[in-house]
Write a structure and sequence with these properties.
This protein has strands at residues 9-14, 31-36, 49-53, 56-58, 61-62, 65-66, 70-73, 80-86, 93-101, 112-118, 123-130, 138-145, 152-159, 164-170, 175-181, 194-204, 207-217. With 219 residues, the protein is mostly beta strands. The chain has two domains: 9-118, Immunoglobulins (Immunoglobulin-like), CATH 2.60.40; 123-217, Immunoglobulin-like (Sandwich). A four-stranded antiparallel beta sheet has the order 1-2-8-7, with no helix packed on it. A four-stranded antiparallel beta sheet has the order 4-3-9-10, with no helix packed on it. Strands 14-13-16-17 form a four-stranded antiparallel beta sheet, with no helix packed on it. Strand 7 (70-73) and strand 8 form a beta hairpin. The protein is elongated and about 65 Å long. The mean pLDDT is 93.
Length: 219
């Protein structure tokens, strides 16, 4: 009989979103780390999941008291063995996160490292859409910096003469965002070939940010 040789895995989200190094995050993110391992030897020890922020360990207890920023839950589930919720308050600038985990037989999950940026300046960055030219559908993509999750997000699509033909209401997060569009106007009809303008409008931090780009439809 062989022992357990399968590595556990970590599922990590920031405010419910998968991130990549280089992304923006808000200054008070909710980070959820799920420890996944198909093993009969379930973990029940906080030492099996560790978080480092800017190369400093984050402890579950501080001076004998629970850390209010860090919570671990051990559900009755042999596959999802633990959920860690981390709510740091971050300063403006770049931050490095390391997530380290291992199971009861010493198998380590692949160490996950993110280099993420907090920028309190509320701005739309890198707005574009793909594909462009499009046929019947496209995806609008942009980065958003700021200290808090925006309260409103919409995309308005115009003819080059300035007539509004479609408004897309969506949600947005600090960081990388994608908003799909099926290529139909407000009447539900596919739009004709041509060049159009689209305007992204984001509300948050008691201000409004906008950005304008062009798209082409070619069928």
């Amino acid at each position: 009989m062989t022992g357990d040789s399968i590595k556990p895995s970590l599922d990590i989200t920031y405010d419910g979103i998968k991130v990549q190094s280089g992304d923006y995050i808000q200054k008070k993110p909710q980070i959820v780390v799920k420890f996944l391992d198909d093993s009969k030897m379930v973990i029940r020890d906080t030492s099996h999941i560790r978080i480092n922020l800017d190369d400093s360990a984050i402890y579950y207890n501080i001076n004998g008291l629970p850390n209010p920023d860090l919570t671990i839950i051990f559900p009755q589930n042999k596959f999802l063995q633990a959920t860690v919720i981390y709510k740091p308050v971050l300063s403006d600038g770049e931050h490095k996160f390391d997530f380290i985990a291992f199971d009861n037989t010493g198998n380590y999950a692949d160490t996950t490292t993110y280099d993420l940026t907090v920028n309190n300046d509320f701005r739309i960055l890198d707005l574009n859409n793909y594909p462009n030219p499009m046929k019947n559908q496209t995806t609008f993509m942009f980065n958003l910096s700021g200290s808090n999750i925006p309260t409103g997000c919409k995309i308005k699509i115009y003819t080059v003469a300035g007539r509004l033909i479609k408004q897309i209401n969506a949600s947005a997060n600090i960081g990388y965002n994608q908003i799909p569009w099926d290529g139909k106007d407000s009447d539900g009809d596919y739009m004709a070939n041509g060049v159009y303008l689209y305007k992204l409008i984001i509300d948050g931090d008691n201000k409004r940010e906008t950005s304008i780009q062009k798209l082409a439809i070619l069928k």
